[in-house]
Amino acid sequence: MSAAAAVHTEEDHGHHHKETFVTKYIFSQDHKMISKQYLITGLFMGIIGIAMSLLFRLQLAWPEQPFGIFEVLLGKWAPDGVMDPNVYLALVTIHGTIMVFFVLTAGLSGTFSNLLIPLQIGARDMASGLLNMISFWLFFLSSTIMVMSLFVEAGPAAAGWTIYPPLSALPQAQPGSGTGMTLWLVSMAIFIASSLLGSLNYIVTVINLRTKGMSMTRLPLTIWAFFVTAIIGVVSFPVLLSAALLLIMDRSFGTSFFLSDIFIQGEVLHYQGGSPVLYEHLFWFLGHPEVYIVLLPALGITSEIIATNARKPIFGYRAMVASILAIAFLSTIVWGHHMFISGMNPFLGSVFTFTTLLIAIPSAVKAFNYITTLWKGNLQLNPAMLFSIGLVSTFITGGLTGIILGDSTLDINVHDTYFVVAHFHLVMGISALYGLFAGVYHWFPKMFGRMMNKNLGYVHFWVTAVCAYGVFFPMHFIGMAGLPRRYYTNTAFPYFDDLADINILITVFALIAGAAQIVFLYNFIHSMFYGKKTVQNPWRSNTLEWTAPVEHFHGNWEGEIPHVHRWAYDYSKPGHEEDFIPQHIPLKKGEEELQH
Amino acid sequence: MNIFLILSVLVLIAISIWQITKIFELSQAKKVNTQVADDDDNNLNGKLMFAFLIFIYGITIFSFWSYGDVLLPNSASEHGADYDNLMWISFAIIFFVQTITQALLHYFSYKYRGEKGKKALFYADNEKLEMIWTIIPVITLAGLILYGLYTWTDIMTVEENDEALVVELYAQQFNWKARYAGEDGVLGDANVRFLQDFEGRNLVGIDATDPNGFDDVVVQELHLPEGREVIFKMRSQDVLHSAYMPHFRAQMNCVPGMITEFAFTPNKTTEEMRQDPDITAKVKKINKIRVEKSKELVASGDMALDPYEFDFLLLCNKICGASHYNMQMKIIVETEQEFEEWMNSQQTFAEVIQ
Q1: Helix, strand, or coil here: A267?
Q2: Which domains does chain B show, CATH number per domain?
Q3: What is the SS3 string spanning A362-379?
Q4: DSSP secondary structure string, A430-447?
Q5: Rg of chain A on CA atoms, in Å
Q6: Residue A307: exposed, middle, or buried by beta-carbon count in 10 A (0-12, 13-18, 19+)?
């Protein structure tokens, strides 16, 4: 393997292709440019996703109030300024789809795996630049189609981001299940193709293209996280594709994979023998690993940022790797916890409770390791560090309520209530999102050669952090009060009248949080052009990406790729003057490498 | 015109935030600014981290204090007590963990905030410590799993027996119907293809060739006798729905093409539940809100709202289309005698299709 790497090095160095505007900025095969393309597209989709959430939060807080903004943005879907119930469901559906897939999967993994894998393992680029380029443009195409689906006559998909049939299969059941759903399915099929191509590239690159001395046990935790995430992706995304294809067949070719014994709009439909529960199994076989595909990269990024900023090794490197692997393995056998009351055999419920509560253990180990890394550190509280600490905080809060939800018995009364919504937003919507922000603040100098403004970063963090808890902590209570999710309004049940105040509080915090993101956007865009020019290693970090020059060029390093002599976490090592020793620095005479 | 006004307002708000941000940034012309945190930044943010811990505790306490009264009251079913016990224990454990870990996280962020000249401790492993904090969660979770599974098996094992009342819950876009098995205790076969028989009087598609169905009773308000086990057989006419009865700690999806099952024994009548102090307080609060609302409505020419009286609820809890938010059926739990009286006044299927 290292012979192959050496040969690769010899052949490749000094390769300067002639680049046109198109091949440099648009159809680029350079992983660094592709990572920026993923980031920009992901942020753009994120803006749409957040805007949608603010719209439906307005509806939930003041349900009978007409809003001019609804008329403006929703047109015929908000007659006299009152939101149509179908479009409420469409908003929550597209919000969920965009946030989970387009922002937190492509926007997070796509950006940072692309940026960091070659740079941190010491490779010139990904194993296949062409596949990499294709995977980004497929992602872009799928984003375009998803946005186009918003403008369909009968409305976009509106059956929840989980799009269970028969609701999603039958246009008679819901207007959004017509062309809107078709476009959703097409968009997702293309998205899955993009994700698979990307994942294959990441896996092959990590296995084959590590530089001399970069053994697996010297890999930074970011790479472990991205690598394992990619493996989970190739195992689970094809199953969602199969579910989507079978659904397309039920919708358009008269098959009965998911449908049976249905009477709707005055007629008995022809479908016989299928089961919606089959769809649920297929969907969640991806759906659960998907949330770890979202979370693991964020955790990997956190490990890196906390170690660098604490000026201390990440505590328990071996346990961190082991827990990434354990989480990955376990994540493939817990999917049924989304289906405890689906009608499946209760015995399955027992099995899935068991496996689900097991997955709490590696998650807990990671949280404890982060906290211990902070202990007796010399914490440089940069914005990236604040977001990483914030991630640990919300990961703990959200993860603990997962213990309630993973228990099949307790799930009976909280399934599909706002308790679930609060849980997954804390772990995904906040934790993983913090991972994205932390990554942007930390690797902005690497991506754009300039620094982001730290004071704006502080404002962004503190306002977001307060609002994040403000939105999602009270939400647990309305869930425990029995309020179901995906309800256009609570006013049909006088029993829920006393929840109105809580809904208003949540919405107010959400609006402030939304506004705070403008601070981030300003900082991001402005710093790209006018930010303070960076030095090569502004964070005094050990990993290899900071040994590459600030100016980007294809091939990453002039001359030979650095060789690696130590792990990535020699911070404040006794017997050294500097409080960091980059990976490519050879061992001193008499120095011992930390054994794992 | 309105549209342009609204759009302009939004755009202007966004621009204002942008400009304020820019002004804030420009006003920071001071000393050497590398955009990397210095001692002052670390000091400030370290203190803010500690303050944030207080905020987290504060919002927790505030939420319980302000919103504690919206939580579901004591359950009205036999297994409900087991459910609630498990819930309390689980919550006690996670609150304990939350309190300690958040404290450590934020306190360390404050205590070890960076200072030029300080050195961090090179501390990469401690096998003993890692062993302890792995074993303790394993034991705790194992306990929770065993307890949970025991309760789950208890609740979900439905044994057919003669004493139980068998009721079908029939879900459709967008209402519920209930079908009682009648004297013979057996539900007649049913399928959606029979719905169009008898000019639409066959509300849940009973197969008229199955004698078991003749004594079945179809209603749109669910009555249950207190103290008797009810076994729900659930069906759906069109898409996925879910029968959610939160006061009984019960929920089960209604799946077209399948009959799903859930059983419980109600142990409080509607009357008794209305006397429960939590419920009385909640109803009082709700009626206060409704009176306020009614003032507004009457002022704008609409009718005032009816006062609210507590009733058990069946709500739909699986997204099913436009009126998912208003798919409900009243549940009345009454004495055996009241139940018999009510049942006798209902029409059987045989009577309906005559």
Answers
A1: strand
A2: 165-272+308-353 (2.60.40.420)
A3: HHHHHHHHHHHHHCCCCE
A4: IIIHHHHHHHHHHHHHHH
A5: 24
A6: buried
Q: What is the 3-state secondary structure (H, E, C) of B239-302?
A: CCEEEEEHHHCEEEEECCCCCEEEEECECCCHHHHHHCHHHHHHHHHHHHHHHHHHHHHHHCCC
First to last CA, chain B: 61
Mutation to test the B interface, candidates A64, A218, A261, most B Cβ within 10 Å? A261
**The amino acid at A566:** R
Q: Which 408-467 residues of chain A touch chain B by CB within 8 A?
A: 408-410, 412-413, 415-417, 451-456, 458-459, 462, 465-466
Tens-of-pLDDT digits for all 354 residues of chain B? 677 887 888 889 888 888 888 888 777 766 567 799 999 999 999 999 999 999 999 999 999 999 999 999 999 999 999 999 999 999 999 999 999 999 999 999 999 999 998 999 999 999 999 999 999 999 999 999 999 999 999 999 999 888 899 999 999 999 999 999 988 889 999 999 999 988 889 999 999 999 999 999 999 999 999 999 999 999 999 999 999 999 999 999 999 999 999 999 999 999 999 999 999 999 999 999 999 989 988 998 888 888 999 999 999 999 999 999 999 999 999 999 999 999 999 999 988 888
Residue tagged 């001193």 (tokens): A588
* Residue whose pair of structure tokens reads 């670390």 in the numeric block: B42
Supply the pLDDT for residue B30.
65
Contact B35 A453 (CB under 8 A): yes
C-alpha to C-alpha distance for A537 and A548, rounded to whole angstroms: 9
Q: What is the DSSP string of A490-545?
A: STT-GGGGGGHHHHHHHHHHHHHHHHHHHHHHHHHHHHHHHSPBP-S-TT---SGG
- Residue whose entry in the numeric block shows the structure tokens 């306190």: B107
- What are the tens digits of pLDDT across the range A347-374? 999 999 999 989 999 999 999 999 999 9
Using the CB atoms, write b or e for B118-153: b if 16+ within 10 Å. bebbbebbeeeebeebbeebeebbeebbebbbebbe
List of chain A residues with pLDDT < 50: 1-14
Q: Looking at the predicted complex, does its ipTM rise above 0.90?
A: yes
Average model confidence (pLDDT) across chain A: 93
pTM summary value = 0.94
Q: Is B170 helix (H, G, I), strand (E, B) or coil?
A: strand
Number of residues in chain B: 354
Picking from B36, B134, B310, the nearest residue to A365 by CB comes out as B134
Q: Is A482 on the interface with B (CB under 8 A)?
A: yes
